[in-house]
Amino acid sequence: MCSWTLLHSCGLNAWQVEGLPLSTTSNEACKLYDATLTQYVTWRNDQTLGGLEGCVSRMLDADPNFVMGHVIGTGLEVIGTGSSILRNQQLASAVKRTVELAQTQDITPREKLHASAIEQFSKGCIPKACDLWEEILLEHPTDLLALKFAHDGYFYLGYQVQMRDSVARVLPHWKPHMPLYSYLKGLYSFGLLETRFYDQAEKVAKEGLALTPGDAWSVHSVAHVHEMRAEVDKGLKFMESTEKDWNGCDMLACHNYWHWALYFIEKGEYEAALEIYDEQIARRFVSSGAMLDIVDACSLLYRLELEGVSVKERWRELLPITQPHTEDHVLLFNDLHFLMTSLGVEEQGLTQRLLESLRKQAEDPGEHHQLQLAWDLGLAMCQALVEYRQGNYSQVVELLRPIRYRFSQIGGSDAQRDVFSQLLIHAAMRSERKRHRMLARCLLVERDAVRPNSPLTDRLIQRANAMCV
Fold it and tell me: For the domain bounded by 1-155, which CATH number is listed?
């Protein structure tokens, strides 16, 4: 079995034995591919190896024509959604180079499929990319790169069932002695919780943590379970007791701190949430520039504003990080969070630039999945954010109510998308139309049924009742 560990990385022969041959003559390139994959799966940049960036660079130095080296290196940048091939010529060239190498070399069908999947994803054809990764997994269920890329792709699409079932299909082919086996527990747990199997999700995640306490994704999955059940005190205790295990996972720690802050917002302890923002989230998104960290920062500030907390200066600190991405339009989910920032600092020109460029690209979306959703979903959600900022609460309700069951299509998790459900509730409560205020009470009844004993819901119910008197 291929080792898939940083200390004993897989060389050329080990990958061959595993049934996942790599088309290169460089043993060093194979080992660095292994190290890169391991860091991606474990959410850690190992600085003794130079992190992901250093490993990719050294891997391609070892073999500049290594197709799977280009697949994982370029793929990680594309999957990160921090740049578009339409606006980043260097990334576009890297994708082109990957495809050309795959077409001109004698490589395996599996490797060709990998290169095609990266090309499709880079063009916005995320469903097609996921289909290609699934085709790989049919014959190669232990291809962890295909599994993880598909998992991320489904997450961006909001394909919750597929995210769960993709892992379920390959689990029987994995055995406990296989390196990184425990990390499949976290992947599977996340799919379970996103399809509302909370008990099973918690059980599977804790099985993973029993094997690998430092698995930040399993921690993240348990945090989600407590969030969706409104088990605030349990969530706070869990995050505090496990912090030492996951705060070194630099690619996910910021997100786990975001979950921690959500518990405080749920309790109405806003200063505690802001403390986490200032001490953990703000410094991390500045240093990483990662999309997950950036959207978490936007989301947290927006939720606090919905609760009536003033965070304007923090929006100004965030603006230089989000502004360069204004016209990327890789994901609608990202666009909505960038828009929160431009609205937060009242940069009307930047807001219009984002909306106009999104409209323009959506006029001819081609096969770009997200742009195909822009006209009847993404732009309506964007406009709702604008209208709310302008105090046009009834218009927000009219925009969001017809599409609220489609929010999942922008991707992300139930917990992340909840900010838009909260937006609809707040707008309905503030609307001058009586039927909208009645709607707010109905939405809160729904929320209370799904997530009983939520302090945040209780506060909103009290406010809605007072407004309807």
Answer: 1.25.40
Q: Are 425 and 443 in contact (CB under 8 A)?
A: yes
Lookup: tokens for 245: 């295990």
207's enclosing H/E stretch is helix 198-211
The neighbour count for residue 280, using CB atoms within 10 Å, is 18
> Amino acid identity, residue 367?
E
What DSSP string describes 142-204? T-HHHHHHHHHHHHHHT-HHHHHHHHHHHGGG--TTSTTHHHHHHHHHHHHHHTT-HHHHHHH
The span from the CA of 132 to the CA of 150, in Å, is 9
User: If you search the block for the tokens 């232990």, which residue do you land on?
Assistant: 142
Rounded Cα–Cα distance for residues 443 and 455 (Å): 15
Task: Report how far residue 441's alpha carbon sits from residue 423's, in angstroms, rounded to the nearest whole number.
Answer: 14
CA atoms within 13 A on the CB side of 152: 22
d(CA 325, CA 449): 38
Residue 408 contacts residue 417 (beta carbons within 8 Å): yes
Are 409 and 373 in contact, with CB atoms under 8 Å apart?
A: yes
> Could you read off the pLDDT of 228-258 as tens digits, one per residue?
999 999 999 999 999 999 999 999 999 999 9
The single-letter code of the amino acid at 198 is Y
How many Å is the Cα radius of gyration of the chain? 22
Is the pTM of the predicted complex or chain greater than 0.70? yes
How far is it, in rounded angstroms, from Cα 291 to Cα 243? 22
Q: How many CB atoms lie within 10 A of CB 312?
A: 11
In angstroms, the CA 193 to CA 146 distance is: 22
Q: How confident is the model at residue 7 (pLDDT cuts 50, 70, 90)?
A: very low
Q: Is 101 helix (H, G, I), strand (E, B) or coil?
A: helix
Which two structure tokens, joined as six digits, stand for 262? 């959500």
44-100 residue pLDDT tens = 999 999 999 999 999 999 999 999 999 999 999 999 999 999 999 999 999 999 999
CB 269 within 8 A of CB 308: no
d(CA 247, CA 136): 33
